[in-house]
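Progress narrative, work stream C.
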Amino acid sequence: WPQLFDEATPIAERQAIVGDWLRQVRRSIPGVRLGLRVESRIAHRAAAGIDLREIARAGLADYAIIAMPYFWDPQPETEIEPAASPIPLYFEVTQETGAPPADKKLLESFGLTGSERYVEQLSTARRLVTGANLAWRRGFYGLAMFNMQYYLRLASGAPPVEYPAEAILCMSKPECAAASDQEYVLPLSHYHLAYERNMLPAFVRPRRPAQFSLRLAPPAKGWTGEALVFVGFTLPKAEADPRRDYAEAKAALSVRLNGRPMNATEAEWPADPGDGEKLAEHYRRYWLNAAPFHKIFAAPARDLVDGVNTVEVEWSGPAAPAVEAKMLDFRLFAPAAR
């Protein structure tokens, strides 16, 4: 997003300026529908002078699209619940959920080279449909699509991947979106946006767990089986013996879901059948999917709740390392009952 104001300008003054400008626009183009694409986080909107509640109350726009600048935010914040908004609110989805760059020397120390160093983390079919179900359940008026053409190409001239046409069709039908397995992710902050709660990167420090919340909306027939959590991380100060440091950190990493400890598992992350073979191969080269850099946990799906779920990622055990881990990827998979 553009930097519209000097940092010294008070938030209230920024919002007054933007509000007055929108009123002038309204007067200058009577009868023309006016839509806004606004930041998905309350703090980011306030910094840009956007008071969504006042804009909706005063009718300064006919609709608003809740979005991040480039990556997708599947956990948007709104001052008003979409179902109760005086103006329609649209939930924006986009093709990318973020791909943190890898450290070349670190990957080479684990024998990873070439294309493993950087792979775009696209919004998989399962993630798109999960986001749509959450949007419909929260009462958003509709969905907005942004940059979906990027599925037609990848970084560095790689071959295109299959366009997620079936997933987009399913997203448009609430009953279809409510019948699918789910994968929730946290967005990656970018474009110099301030880090906010429930965004990545997050930090796991000694005696200071990474804490955040996820809003979930169950499928029509509920969840079943085991829920899985994927934590991808890096150790910014692992220099002397990376293999040892990462092994110790991975062993000590633990997760609590809604206050209950999850169990570490050797299960593989479930493939997304809606992605197609090219995108599946693309993800096999994604560096955080390499074994040293992630850990997977499991818990009964009945531990999930409809609404806000709390997560804590922390060091545990007698050999908990006295280091900082930078969490770059977080996913939650929950299978749908059929």
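Work stream C, second folded protein:
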Amino acid sequence: SAAMCFPAGPHALKSARGKREAAIAARMRMWRFALRETGWLLLALIGAGVLAAIVSTLAVPGATADLHHFVAALGQRCLDFARLEFGFSSITGTSAVAMLARGLAPTLVLLVWGAVIAVIVGAPVGIIFARGPVHRPFAPLIQVVAAMPVFCVGLALIWFAVNVLHWPASARGDAGAALGLVPALLERNAIAVTNAFRILAVPALIVGAAGAASLQLALRRAAAEAGEASYRQGLKLMGLSALEIERVYSAPQIAAGVLASLGEIVLALISAAAIAEWVFDWPGDAVLFVKSVALHDWTVAALVLLLFAAIKLVADFIGALGAHALAEPDGEA
């Protein structure tokens, strides 16, 4: 064809060069943003470590006698944390790291399955009630359900599971079976899957309900902002259809808004995990934190606090990067 026989004209070459330069500039902006966010993450982690060291200092004998002793004990705790020496439980004498490690897997299982439920339930609810004629009459109902205390949801689910389904009310001694749900699914072991599901379903639903409430709120908030964006009217005047505007422009903005709230959603999951673990006697780190604070076992409480703070901060970091990547034009258009 003629396009293949003749070289590109100067205007085409200039346009291609401009696109490449724009793409390089966009990538450089993304790298600068990532480096800046990494710096803030490191500072935030250091701050969380100092806060955990302050809490841990409360376990040092005589540290609370006066300010001088507390500052000296705090300095020693900070040095210990820097050397990754987190101390021992004042109740059991067990290593705080060992206690944290024992409860980490059960808590992560609850958080992961809760996140899955949150996406399955919260995303459709947020999308359906975000905009449109169905939003107005149902908005108050959604607000009431989303504001319902997780503890009340847990009690209702426990009553239903025990009295109607005749499922176990406590996971103590059976949490190991629940952790094997995925291997049981892969092995197609129906008995193991049933047992794991009966133990894990209600605690995961409690965590998922809190995550779904937070997710749908973030989605509806982002969709409302996208619906009021000033560019929509201009795009309509350019001849773009409503579906194309939603797909090409609004959807990335909504996704960016949800990613920006990722830390908030993760925090909701962690808070609900503490309640679910307490109610169901689930041997995880969230309930370990509650019990440690109640027993004034500050060494263990500080380490669990540091873990959850790190999870939340990393979620904020990932969400910020994802939101910026979606909002930043790549220069290829």
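The two ends are 26 Å apart (CA to CA). No further action is required on this item.
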